[in-house]
Each structure stands twice: as structure tokens, then as C-alpha cells.
Amino acid sequence: MENNQIENDQMENAQKLVNSFHEALGINVSLIVDSLAYQTVPEWDSISHMILISQLEEDFSVSLETDDVIDLSSFAKAKEILIKHGLIF
Amino acid sequence: MLLQNKICLVTGASKGIGKAICTLFANEGARVVMTGRNLESLNTLAAGLPHHSSPHLVFEMDVTKEDEIIKVFKELHEQKIFINCIVNNAGVMEDATLQMVKTEVIHKIYNTNVFGTILPSQHSIKAFLRNRGGSVINLSSIIGTNGNHGQSIYGSSKSAIIGFTKSLSKELAPLSIRVNAIAPGFIDTDMTRGMDEKFYEKNLKSIGMRRLGTAEDVARVALFLASDLSEYVTGQVIGVDGGMII
Questions:
Q1: Which fold has domain A3-84?
Q2: Could you report the predicted ipTM of this complex, rounded to two decimals?
């Protein structure tokens, strides 16, 4: 894959991930940064966490396993998990 | 038809109550995902069921084997088949007084009846979220609600299903996912036909309606819980026992 294509995919996925979080958690885009963590804001509770998992599966066409669901504890961690599933960031 | 456009997964689908549920659900318009240990029986069942838009699906899945459960749900996800309902029907019954029960039997009963209900439920939630709702139907038993001599292991495994149902219903209600249980009484299935004759007679006498229940009696309640008729019903345990007293 050429460098330009890789950079485009990285940017596209990064933007898509922000959108997924925004859509699932109803949280302001400006708050969606690497340090955003599970249960540190009222919008990201155990209920919205499940909605987020479903949103990520739909947006990135992946199937997250139970361990992924448990491990997905921050925005940064979400990237790590999606990288594990073959996506690039 | 009450289940038009709904996709329902049934565990332990090849015989008894599971088979009756699959048959009724298919007749009511559902696309049924039949799972069980006996692929041949499942295929035979599937071949005889009416289907509407898409064919029914069959998977070999032992609920005591998590890898098989994961495989089925992964396959459904890959095919973009998102179930609306799961019926956790697979179960085993072996009776003996507590002193006479071997540890491996306890594990077998709990692995099938309890873990075999919890794990498929856990994996089905993501599909329900895609559908913005869903229905989990767990098969408990009158022995789980009332207890019975010689059934401490089986009864406690079925009580665990009630506890699981009630807690999970509270957890998932905000997501419009309903969780209910059915507690059948003495139902005429292979499982009860294998009972000791004295035990069988004693149980029959304890039924107010003086007849054994049928798998179809149970299936009709499952139909209610799977359909939108019960859209405001969650956390309930519905007895299907003909007025049985234990």
C-alpha cells in the first residue's frame, strides 16, 4: 500500500472512530481524546458502553469478543483493539 | 403472524420443547436459527418447517462448549444476521439425593443448564443492540421455583436461571431488551419419559388439570414472550404447569 493511501486510511479511521464515540455516547466531539475513559464522564456508563460496542462493530465491520468489550476502557484502547482487528490508525 | 420479520435462535432445538418452539415460531413467520448437538436431527427438523423470505439456519452447537457458541455468533455476525430473540432451552435433568450425586454430574448439570443459558445470552446482546431491542427467553422449571425431593442439583440450576433472568432484565431494560423465564411443570418429553415410574405417577397426581403438559403448551408461552404482544413484559417467570402442586 502506498504511503498516501495509508495516511488517508489512518485519517479516515480516526475520524470514523470519533464519530462512532459521538454517535454512541452522545458526547461532544471536543471531549473525544485518547484520555477519554469509561465511567469518567456520565455519558459513558455501562449501558452506553454496550451501545458503543455495537456502533464500533457496525462502523468498522468487526466482531468484538467478550475480552475486547471488557478491555475497551478508553478511546486510546479502542484504537488498540481495532488495530488488533486489522484496522490502521 | 406474530413473528414476521423476526429471527429467533433456539438452543436444544432438535427435540421436545425446543422442537415445538421452532415449529411454532416458523409457523408464525420467524426465521429460526436452530442449534443443538445433533446436526442430523436439526437438519431434518429444518427441512420440514415452512419458511417465508429467508431459509432457516442450522448449527451444531453444544451449549457447554464456549468455542462452539462463539463460532455460531461469529458466523451470524459475518452473515449480518442479527437475531431478535434467543430461547435458552437446552437443558439436562439427572435426579438423585444429594449424597448420591457425583461431582461430575453436578458439573454437567450446571454447565448445561446455567452456563449454557448465560453464555449464549451474553453473545446475543450485541445483535439485540443492532435491532434496538430483543427478547431473551430462559427455560427454568417448577422445580426451580418450588424445589423437589431428589432434585437439589437440577432444581438449584433452574433457580439460578431465575436469578439470572431477574437481574439481567434490570440490566437490559434501558436498552429495550426483555428477559423472561418460563417455568414448565411436568411436560411430556423424552426427559420426563425417562423418569422412574413411581416418581412419574406421583408427579401426575400433583397436577390440578390431571394431565401432563405438552411441549406445545410451553411453546405458546415462548411465542408470547418472543412476540411484540409482550413488549412491556420483562423480568417475569411464567409457570406453565396446569396447576401443579409441589
A1: 1.10.1200
A2: 0.83
